[in-house]
Specification:
Largest sheet: 7 strands, mixed
Number of strands: 12
Distance between the termini: 38 Å
Strand order of the largest sheet: 8-7-6-9-10-12-11
Number of helices: 9
Order of helices and strands: EEEHHEEHEHEHEHEHEHEHE
Strand content: 15-25%
Shape: globular
């Protein structure tokens, strides 16, 4: 029933978890059960992961990660997960909301160069940010990166993404890592998820803000990306499938409830908030 989630173990040793909007099967020895609370959604962080989470932020390590000398500000285990998914999916268009310094843009471009080098397939990394004063000069010079300077919720982003999908046909991998407040992320989801096709991948980053997952940390944000993706997925149950195996593969992620695969659903996206007046 809506809002209810069932967990059981099959005789052959597989664990099946049914969420309101996703179904997945993993080996019973996997660590997923210890992370999910009884509702099947809320994250229950083991003590050792909780301690690492606090260390990661309190020591400021999150701000020191770099790719080829350029600040990326991403969790290395998430980055490794990204490259595994991208290698399997082989997207020809990668959409990044939130350029910042540009380290992750370079990471994605370098990765896709290697992924497509053998077949020589054309690809593009589209990265969006309103501010570029801190951006590394290599971003605008890179032949495989297109920087779009605008608010992420504006129609221009959808229009450019749609045009690039036609120019670089194939799978799409998209990451939302701009502003992390609930309203902005909801507007981004409503604007861009309709452009994803079945099998395309979506990551909503930094869903651990506002005390989600770890009540001790990051309480200053207010409603954030976690609330946005939870609301969006609940209202559009056929649109996305939660990729729980990826979410918990390395035991820790900055993006709990943030790993999703686009489903084949022809229904129109239900809008949770108004998006007819973007900034």
């Amino acid at each position: 029933t809506p809002g209810k989630h069932v967990i059981w173990v099959r005789p052959e040793g597989e664990l099946t978890v049914l969420l309101a909007w996703s179904t997945f099967t993993v080996n019973a020895t996997h660590k997923i059960p210890e992370y999910l609370s009884e509702d099947g959604v809320t994250i229950r962080m083991p003590e050792e992961v909780h301690n690492y989470h606090q260390w990661w932020y309190r020591k400021g390590v999150w701000g020191e990660t770099r790719w080829m000398g350029v600040a990326a500000q991403k969790q290395p285990m998430d980055m490794w997960n990204y490259q595994e998914i991208i290698y399997q999916l082989k997207p020809t268009l990668l959409v990044e909301i939130g350029t910042n310094f540009g380290g992750s843009s370079l990471f994605f471009a370098n990765l896709l160069q290697n992924v497509h080098s053998k077949e020589g397939r054309r690809f593009k990394v589209m990265t969006v940010d309103l501010e570029d004063w801190q951006q590394d000069p290599a971003i605008k010079k890179h032949p495989h990166i297109e920087y779009v300077k605008t608010y992420s919720q504006r129609p221009l982003v959808r229009e450019r993404m749609s045009a690039l999908k036609k120019e670089f046909p194939g799978p799409v991998w998209m990451i939302l890592d701009g502003a992390h407040d609930r309203m902005t992320v909801l507007q981004e989801l409503q604007l861009l998820v309709p452009l994803l096709d079945e099998g395309d991948y979506l990551v909503v980053e930094d869903t651990n803000l506002d005390g989600h997952v770890d009540a001790v940390l990051l309480k200053r944000w207010g409603p954030c990306a976690y609330d946005a993706i939870l609301e969006f997925a609940s209202k559009n149950r056929g649109a996305l499938k939660r990729d729980v195996e990826r979410e918990f593969k390395f035991g820790f992620s900055q993006s709990p409830l943030g790993w999703w695969v686009r489903r084949a659903d022809s229904r129109e996206i239900v809008k949770v908030v108004r998006d007819d007046n973007p900034p």
